[in-house]
Amino acid sequence: MKIEYLEIKNYKQFSDLTLNLTYPKGHEKEGKPLDKICIIGQSGTGKTNLLEIIVSLLMNPFIPENTSIFAKCKMQNNKTMKIELQSPLGGVININKEQHEKLYYIDVLKQENNTVWEHLNRKIENYDNERLQYVNKLSNKLLNIESYEKKNFQKDIKEWESKNNNILEQIADKINEVLIQLNLQLTKIDKNQRSYTSLTFKDLSNSEIIKYQNISTGTKNLLSTFIPLKSYNPKDSIILIDEPENSFYPDIQRELTDLYMGVGENNQLIMATHSPLIASSFEPWEVVELKFDRNNQIYREKYYEGDNHIDNYTLDPRMLTWTSILVDIFDLKEDSFSFREKKLMEYGMLKSEIKAMEKGTKREEKIKKFKKLSALLGLQN
To answer: I want to staple 38 with a disulfide (CB 3.0 to 4.6 A). Which of 137, 187, 217, 282 is the partner?
Structure first.
């Protein structure tokens, strides 16, 4: 299930907002729902509210009077589902979706860890029970059938384990791909663990074991969002994550989109973020930038001119420098860089002065100052 169109009228701060969430003309997936969406915008434009509206719309919503919310979704079998709600008497049309088609809403700062671990524990117990039943069956076979030997028993067990996923190993292997960048490794998750606080990690620099309470807030956030998603293994579902960048260093922020896109199968990922780094990992048609117009009404900023075609896009966050992203997409005033601009002018003047000077003590002092300024500006000497 993926949302391809959303229209909101007279709800919270949205008086009239229409979002086309499909790939533009000229794209190989033209007209299909976006696989991933990044919602950005000024404070007060309703990034989090937009996620909550989607949750309300597809669950059991209560929509105030004089409000209209319309969503168009694409199902796994390519059938179109329409949901339209008007007035408090409105209700969700019966979706008739498969059990694996669900909605996953994660607020990084409000994780219900106990609920997550209850679900994870059930999956662990199911795996253990099924394995035990199979081992008992093979044990009886080993005892009662003369031609069935120990080597056959071991081969069958190994084959069963290769076909049946061990959720603990899956989670540890996948999350360690990211944790290694933090110089950490998640130790084996024990099936008797009942909470995040009992997890342990190895410091790869000295092999010391670190307890959960001693790891960084960012690492805790990663565990509390990734582990539940991996344990649910969503398929044909919508995953909504609010502020995934919280407490993460920039190099990890760049990995988050790919990390969550790799969870499950054929899902639609929708992130609301303040992070330029996360926004820069999205194609321009995947970015929903919310802004206030002159009448303080919220609208979506267009990154293209004329027809919605990939060739008409004039802004692509993947190709911008960090300064340009902050100015062109996150609307940071150019005045914010006036100090750097002054220093760049000083850099240019020093460079000209040094070229014109004869060798000597004064020139060496200028060169020393030039090198220091060059390093501060992140420029080559």
So the answer is: 282
Of 177, 224, 179, 225, nearest to 202 (Cα)?
Answer: 179
Q: Rounded CA gap, 378 and 375, in Å?
A: 5
Q: State the amino acid at position 305 in one-letter form.
A: E
Distance CA 3, CA 20 (A): 9
Cα dist from 335 to 7, 103, 339, 373, whole Å? 36, 42, 8, 21
> Where in the chain are the domains?
2-102+236-245+267-329, 113-231, 338-377
- φ, ψ (nearest 5 deg) of residue 19: -125, 120
Neighbours of 81 (CB within 10 A): 18
Provide the β-strand partners of residue 235. Answer: 265
The SS3 of residue 236 is: coil
8 A C-beta contact, residue 63 and residue 21:
no
DSSP structure string for 245-261: TTT--HHHHHHHHHHHH
pLDDT, tens digit, for every residue of 159-212? 888 887 666 666 777 778 778 877 888 886 665 555 566 778 899 989 899 988
Q: What is the CATH number of domain 2-102+236-245+267-329?
A: 3.40.50
Cα gap 42→51, rounded to integer Å: 15
The pair of structure tokens assigned to 26 is 């000229």
Q: What is the pLDDT of residues 286-314, one digit of tens each?
A: 999 999 888 888 999 999 999 999 999 98
CA 340/CA 369 separation, integer angstroms = 16
Quote the CA–CA distance of 240 and 253 in Å, as a whole number: 16
